[in-house]
Amino acid sequence: MQLLKVFSGTAGSAVKKIKEEEMEEFDGVRCRGEAVESFVKSLVAGAGASEESAAAVARALTDASMRAVDTHGVRLTPHYLRGLKAGRIKPNPTVRIERLSPAVVHVDADDGLGHLASYRGIEAGIEVARENGIAAVAIGRSTHHGATGVYTLTAARQGFAALGMTNADAIVAPHDGVKAFFGTNPITFAVPAESGNPLLLDMATSSIPLNRVLLRRDTGTDLPPEVAIDGKGEMTVDPFAAAALVPLGGANYGYKGAGLAVMVDMLCSAFTGMLHGARLPSFAGDDVTWPARLGHFFIIFDTGAFQPRQAFANRVAEFLADLRGQPARPGESVKAPGDPEWAALAERTANGLPIDAATWKTLGEFAQSYGCAVPDVIATTSAH
Amino acid sequence: MQLLKVFSGTAGSAVKKIKEEEMEEFDGVRCRGEAVESFVKSLVAGAGASEESAAAVARALTDASMRAVDTHGVRLTPHYLRGLKAGRIKPNPTVRIERLSPAVVHVDADDGLGHLASYRGIEAGIEVARENGIAAVAIGRSTHHGATGVYTLTAARQGFAALGMTNADAIVAPHDGVKAFFGTNPITFAVPAESGNPLLLDMATSSIPLNRVLLRRDTGTDLPPEVAIDGKGEMTVDPFAAAALVPLGGANYGYKGAGLAVMVDMLCSAFTGMLHGARLPSFAGDDVTWPARLGHFFIIFDTGAFQPRQAFANRVAEFLADLRGQPARPGESVKAPGDPEWAALAERTANGLPIDAATWKTLGEFAQSYGCAVPDVIATTSAH
């Protein structure tokens, strides 16, 4: 089973589950976010990437980690370092941006790091949306770009709403299927708020990420129900029997999550010129010499082109206040998309960015071989 | 509980469940689709609606019913007739289409039937997408428009891809919430295929529609797990205890369905100038004198602006063939979004459009009072 091979090692740190859908705590260290960003940049540059490529990776991974999106944060650094080393990722790409139509931008990532092409695409999309009210940004010949929400958030921080998605190699089965066909195909949507943090949705169209399966193998605990199938297509809670993830919605309603995965796969392949997920080489398999050739797709909205800016801001504020003020089950609160991440950002800004022990060790080894300085540890963390 | 009031009567026909997520069979009659469309048009015109308003409703409801989207098909006719009679829906609206930005269209539905504004919006969006590659269509001051997929499908039938959504009054609780806040806030996505039917996703962001709860009350059977909560926010399978639906994803992953509902609510309110779902008057409560003031949101894509037309068509064909060819669990097959509907369309084109007995009776009463001819019954149907 492919699941056995991928990402082995990165899920090996001791992890305490706080809540199924939320952040994890782990054994490791804490460093200042800015120091981590510099460190990651120096490592990626050490692996041969251009200055701007390395800066884009470091910015994206640190941004995700600071918001506790650890699965797509700093712990992915070794993956990119290996991809650069193996030649799968071009270290010094020529990113080409072409305006195909008044409101359509195509970005050719030139097999470089997806983070650089994605930031560039967002910036180009913002300019086009400023003129036209809306812009589509189709990115092709790209590679893994970390958390897709990083880029819609970048737009929101500049006052633009954004919808984003990416395809990926197959790890999620279609509804009623028996083997992987879709990537976890995330959808992200961000809307700026006049005061406070943006609204930020960033979700896989599967119920859980692959990493959760690997984690449960390490901890020897069952998976939640209806998140994975075995090799015969039957739902399984045994992490060792899991052969593929299933789409959001599980046994009864997985056709909905699968439908969303289809939308993502289409927009990121047929619209970008790339292949759909099932035809992509594996992101994390043994062979990292093939270019990944991923597609990403963004839509940028100039909110002021739709409604007067103040009216729009008032509506968003009203919506967020109404949602957050909803009565909740005992011990819970109703949150807007992104709220747990803003809480994490505040905490990590104050106390430092935690890096799990396994990642810390691996990064240290890379640092030694590239001659990079390791950031100061300001605290150690424990899952126990 | 609000759930007790809405749509009472329409779920009263005997229904045989074929499969949780699929179509239902019911006691009633079958008539030719074209005859049903003419009938619905004459009824809506009989209730005072303009020729073009009546034609739009009849076209939308018949299109949905022919594809077995019965919850949003002909059985909704009485709802619109009552809305027109009560003054909630303006019978002869002046739909205003304004281009706010090169690629952004606003449609003011003038409190008329949402079907008319939505068809008009799609047509305007296609023209704008032809120029710009992509177009946003924000529709405000609208009313219920039936199945949102009807309109994205209309675009796909003209060779354009489309994303669509609508908000609605509150019936779905936020994740961890205890009372309704979102509408079922559907998302639809359609992509034209060079040969054969388009790819068509059309899904509520809740697991089940409200109608399913009412049905289970009639049949005295339990709900599926994790689709509804009681008045305290606890999951319930008792259809009589159900106080609100929950978002797609259920107890563990409902925050994802809720996140999608947030996206829909935002795009259909802040971007259209309307209020979000929880502030809307009830769609189907006792008071039908208030204007609904719904918002709909569409994005139209000229696929030829992204990739050469033939390359795009090849990618779509390749994707659909790969997906449909996936190995499936015993007795199942892997389907593309829309496939069950195309099968239904073929069957209903051959054998006629089924109308449940309760709806047929109600429509007959309206026909009598408006002096409309009733279509020929070509068969009777039975759930048993």
TrEMBL record, chains A, B:
GO terms for molecular function: oxidoreductase activity. Pfam families: Ldh_2. InterPro entries: Mal/L-sulf/L-lact_DH-like_ah (IPR043144), Mal/L-sulf/L-lact_DH-like_NADP (IPR043143), Mal/L-sulfo/L-lacto_DH-like_sf (IPR036111), Malate/L-lactate_DH-like (IPR003767). It comes from the Bacteria. Keywords: Oxidoreductase. Belongs to the LDH2/MDH2 oxidoreductase family. This is Oxidoreductase. It comes from Telmatospirillum siberiense. The lineage of its organism: Bacteria, Pseudomonadati, Pseudomonadota, Alphaproteobacteria, Rhodospirillales.
